[in-house]
Write a structure and sequence with these properties.
- It is a single chain.
- The chain is mostly helical.
- It has one domain.
- About 65% of the residues lie in helices and about 5% in strands.
- The chain has 14 helices and six strands.
- The protein has a two-stranded antiparallel sheet with strand order 1-2. A two-stranded antiparallel ribbon has the order 3-4. Strands 5-6 form a two-stranded antiparallel sheet.
- Helix 5 crosses helix 7.
- The N terminus is likely disordered.
């Protein structure tokens, strides 16, 4: 068990370290974060509380609740964690760029539809910020961080199984997940999409986009591999290995180039820190899984290979390249702060399928810098925590968090990522967990130093 986080009360003597009171069960954010993850992953993307739109997703509402919880704990003398937390400042800087773009949009003058889109985007950013802050400041130990990640791993596996049933049975189970009954579907669920030759279809499970599904499966796989390597008991390691195999096997059925490239990027980055034996084992299991997929679903891997090698001959790739010319005049009109966050709507303009380009148009160079700073800082905070850790388990956890954040940032090049709430919540959860790990490792280092002084 790691040491609790440290607190630096106002008026304490310089250089004197005061350990914070031990957190009682239920006083931290573990339950709230676990609930947000399960609701995001198990309930369909378009299932909402009426008459709200995407803001009415249960997981998003939990995010608002976590923001309120975090704010109240900051006012409580014993619940607040007073020590430094870089992710608070990083989030503040990012939200400042969102606010600046929001103000610039309204100064330009917005239609009713654009104004609603801007309001919705700001509120979504605040809900996601609640998840980040609750994770960064609300988890008091490595055990609590692991608990949230285990819940995440099981939630992503459940999402994988729903996607597998869609692909195998051609039945969209998400149409029957209207739970509790007071929830309603905002509109029809995303269905199946024919891709390639034969009877292959793309599936999205409970997410709102095929690419979102594939990216989240990659992140779930990386987390599952971590627990398959470092769980305390052999039985647990075998269970998480099974979960990892399930999620790895589901990545191809989204028929997404982005998912395959994200998987390759994630594994290549982790190979830099993995022992040679781990790399060898992953390659062996991956080869066996690829052979099994080829036997069970002939043509699937060939279709993926054709998609990867098509280049700009593929209509979706060609369309994305053409978007740059289409977007250029809008960028030139408002290069610094953009047209206004959340104002690039499919009802008014064409889909871009590139979050970074959409951010450049709506938030300008300031918005792109803010988003890049958010992702880069999260990865660097995790990397900093890794340098402080001596045990292989903690170092691997920090590496997984850093790589997962980078992978999600790269994946945002392929679709309007921040519009989709499961992606948004997952990204901010990982950023918050990176901050939590940084804080816990810093507290451990200070305790070690004070104990040897």
């Amino acid at each position: 068990m790691t040491s609790p986080a440290l607190s630096f009360p106002v008026g304490s003597a310089p250089g004197r370290v005061h350990p914070a009171p031990v957190q009682r069960p239920g006083r931290d954010a573990t339950v709230g974060l676990a609930l947000a993850v399960l609701l995001a992953y198990l309930l369909p993307h378009r299932l909402i509380f009426p008459p709200l739109t995407i803001l009415g997703r249960p997981a998003v509402l939990v995010g608002f609740g976590l923001l309120v919880w975090w704010t109240l704990t900051r006012l409580h003398p014993t619940l607040a964690r007073r020590g430094p937390q870089p992710m608070r400042w990083v989030l503040t800087g990012y939200l400042a760029t969102v606010a600046a773009s929001y103000a610039a949009g309204h100064a330009r003058g917005l239609s009713a539809l654009e104004s609603a889109g801007a309001d919705r985007t700001v509120l979504m950013a605040l809900a996601a910020g609640g998840v980040l802050l609750a994770a960064a400041d609300g988890l008091g130990s490595r055990d609590r961080i692991d608990t949230v990640l285990r819940v995440f791993c099981w939630g992503s596996t459940a999402m994988a199984l729903i996607g597998l049933s869609q692909f195998s049975l051609r039945i969209n189970l998400t149409n029957h997940l209207q739970l509790p009954p007071l929830l309603t579907f905002q509109r029809d669920q995303i269905g199946f999409s024919i891709r390639g030759t034969g009877d292959l279809v793309r599936v999205a499970s409970t997410t709102g986009h095929y690419i979102e599904f594939s990216l989240l499966m990659v992140i779930g796989l990386l987390v599952a591999i971590h627990f398959a390597r470092f769980s305390d008991h052999r039985r647990d390691r075998q269970i998480y290995l099974t979960l990892a195999i399930i999620q790895a096997g589901v990545i191809p059925i989204s028929l997404s180039r982005t998912g395959v490239l994200a998987l390759a990027a994630g594994l290549l980055l982790l190979v830099l820190v993995w022992p040679l034996r781990t790399t060898f084992n992953v390659l062996i299991v991956g080869a066996a899984l690829a052979a099994l997929i080829q036997v069970l679903r002939p043509g699937l891997l060939a279709t993926l290979r054709a998609l990867l090698l098509a280049g700009d001959r593929d209509p979706s790739v060609a369309g994305r390249l053409e978007d740059y010319d289409y977007a250029a005049p809008f960028v030139r009109d408002s290069p610094l702060l953009g047209r206004g966050v959340g104002t690039w709507l499919p009802e008014l303009y064409q889909m871009l399928d590139n979050q970074w380009l959409a951010t450049l148009i709506t938030g300008g160079l300031v918005g792109v810098a803010g988003l890049a700073f958010l992702l880069l800082a999260g990865a660097l905070v995790a990397a900093r925590a890794r340098r402080r850790l001596a045990d292989p388990r903690g170092r691997d956890l920090a590496a997984v968090l850093a790589v997962a954040i980078v992978v999600l940032g790269i994946g945002a090049l392929a679709f309007d990522a921040l519009y989709y709430s499961t992606y948004l919540i997952t990204l901010h959860l990982l950023l918050g967990l990176a901050g939590a790990l940084w804080r816990v490792t810093r507290a451990d280092r200070i305790n070690d130093d004070s104990g040897t002084a």
